[in-house]
Amino acid sequence: MLALGVLFWPLLAGASFTWGLPTLQFVPWRELAAVQLADGQFPLWNLLNGGGAPLLANYQSALLYPPNWVTFLLPAAWSMSVLAVLHLLAAGAGMTLLTRALGANVLGASAAGVAFALSGYMVARLGTYPIILAATWIPWMLWAAQRVLSAGRLRDAGWFSLFVAFGLLAGHAQTMWYAGLLVGLFSLWRVVQLRKPLRLLPLALGGLVALAVSAVQLSATAELLSVSQRSDGVDFAFAMNYSLSPLSLLTFLSPNLFGTPADGSFLTGGAYFEVAAYIGLLPISAAVSAAWQGLRHGAAGKRGDVVFWVVLWAIGLLFALGDRTPVFPFLYRNIPTFDLFQAPARWLIWVVIAGCVLAAFGLTWWTGSRKSMRVVRRLQIVSVALALVGGVGWAGAGLSSREPSAVLMRALCLTGTVGIAYTVAIRLQHGRTARSNRWPLAIIGLVALDLAVAHNGLNVMEAVGDSAAREAAVSDGRIYWTAEAVEQTAYGEYFRFEDYPASLGRHAEIVASRLPNVNLITGTRLFNNFDPLLPAHYAAFVRLLEAHPAHDGLHRAAGITERRDLDGVTIFESDARAFFVTEAIFAGDDEEAFALLANPAFDPSRQVILTGAGQAEGTLEGNARVTELANRQGFTVVSDAPGWLVTSDTFYPGWRATIDGETADIIRANLAFRAVPLPAGTHEVVFSYQPVWLTPAVFVSLGGLVLLVTLFMGDRLRSAYNRDSTAA
Prior knowledge:
Layout: H1 2-8, E1 16-17, H2 21-38, E2 45-46, E3 53-54, H3 76-101, H4 106-117, H5 120-124, H6 129-151, H7 154-169, H8 173-194, H9 200-213, H10 215-226, H11 236-239, H12 272-275, H13 281-297, H14 303-320, H15 327-334, H16 348-364, H17 370-397, H18 404-430, H19 439-455, E4 461-462, H20 467-470, E5 478-481, H21 483-494, H22 507-512, H23 519-522, E6 525-526, H24 536-547, H25 552-557, E7 560-565, E8 568-571, E9 578-581, E10 583-587, H26 590-598, E11 607-611, E12 623-629, E13 632-639, E14 643-650, E15 655-659, E16 662-664, E17 667-669, E18 673-678, E19 681-689, H27 694-727
Parallel strand pairs: 5-6, 5-7, 10-11
Antiparallel strand pairs: 1-4, 2-3, 7-8, 9-14, 12-13, 13-19, 14-18, 15-16, 15-19, 17-18
Helix pairs in contact: 1-19, 3-4, 3-6, 4-16, 4-19, 6-7, 6-8, 7-9, 7-27, 9-27, 10-27, 13-14, 13-16, 14-16, 17-18, 18-19
């Protein structure tokens, strides 16, 4: 707790996490949802980005995750930051309970809890809220699974179901997939050890109940995934992005060996947070010791447990290396699910969890034998040498220098200093010169201090501006940023991967820039969309825009009035969001539609490209007027000839249309948008978002909640039934 206070004390003064994704994704999504709820609308649809996009179905928005509901009542940026830190506490508590259940003593379990909560994996990724929220519940899932498999109680299955449901609703599919595989392997291993395969039944029941509880979120996201650009997986280059470099293994012992973005000294490029996995010098040493003792000597009869966690550690590390070995590319091409996600380095979650469990075993088995104390003395000599060499080199290179030599010397000095502190504490305890009951507290404190120093500054915090100042950034048009302009502005100018503090004091400027997705804060319309899953036809239209920067018709078809690229801003005169046209061109497939749209002669105010077969006639144009809410759009159209009402809003399942109150079919128009055929005359056209999955999924989730409560009450009901049967 004290270490968290040291790391995150600015939150107590009202500051918030601002670097990167909190500003560019998570806070804007939450604030948009809060606005819609305040307006009496369920946050199903985001009308401001990408020509319109699903909001609830955007899995990382995590709108149905119960702890997140507090962020609808409090300032979103601040409350989301505090909630993330509280999850670190919960993660540490879960790891402590898990390792105690696996046989660790209080010292080992407590140190493991601190190591997990303050690990590089958790603290460096803290601003990626969904990863942290989901990862928090993995030790709890394992703890509950252990209890179910040991005793077979329905109440424990209820806890398992609750933790899995929290993980599923937390918003990060990749983390939960890795968690599911981990829990599955752990459960199978425990069943083999216990020889009680039927104990898997209540565990499976708990998992099914969790899926039912999460049905609304999972149904929404499943529909989006099925029509998204990732429906057939991701391409190889994207999947291998952020593969762990073998050199990064050195940071398991010295986390800032290659510098840290906390002070602008990060040297190697890439994202520091994607490869961070430091759990502390003592915990990693204890983990290695446990592996040695367990595999070689079968310490405390735990050889089987040690084998499992060592194998898990090795698999996680191998997968994290990504394309640095032939293994992951083979799995990508041949095994389902390995082509669904990017960043193989996120498999480090297995490495961190296994390392913490093994560290708990290692500290539990510590005896202070003569042989081990000789090792400690040698490590102390090495630590002193590292501290001296590093300190002299650091001072010689300049204490404030960011040169590679200075960064390396500083890392060696700090690692040596940490090693000295640990070895002194161990030798004092062994020599009985300190009271033995204080030693566990000293060790836990040293682990916390080690991790706090290593990860200090990895989460930039500052107070954000008030909403009144942001209103000045509102624009009436729809803006499109090219991919290069977004990358250069977001990560070249504001959020630099090598220097986090460079963004300090610029939050108001960032919001005013109307980058995706900070436009949601100001209410500005963008054609860009930063969501992980995008409707595939929308993504195809974006490729057209990138390939044809000067095509006036393409931009007007998407309702774009302003295009921003590296060369500046291009203005398009028309700001129409909808057109009534009487000329249609029918394309046989998307490839033909793509070619027709790319033709410079394409004019969205005169014609529409429809995919299918048919013919249209007419020469007169009408006019359209629009009234709009997030989940509903209304148009009044007047024309003397039949034609089509064409909008620049995304074609997506769940949208319904009525013409003068009568149901009408929506046709995919101009590759990515919506159109409805209209007869001549004056007509009221209403589009409303009514996804077919919503009502059934709500009933399934409600049923899941009833079953969850039943699991918690199951043992009591069974006991009452047994008493009544005996009495009878």
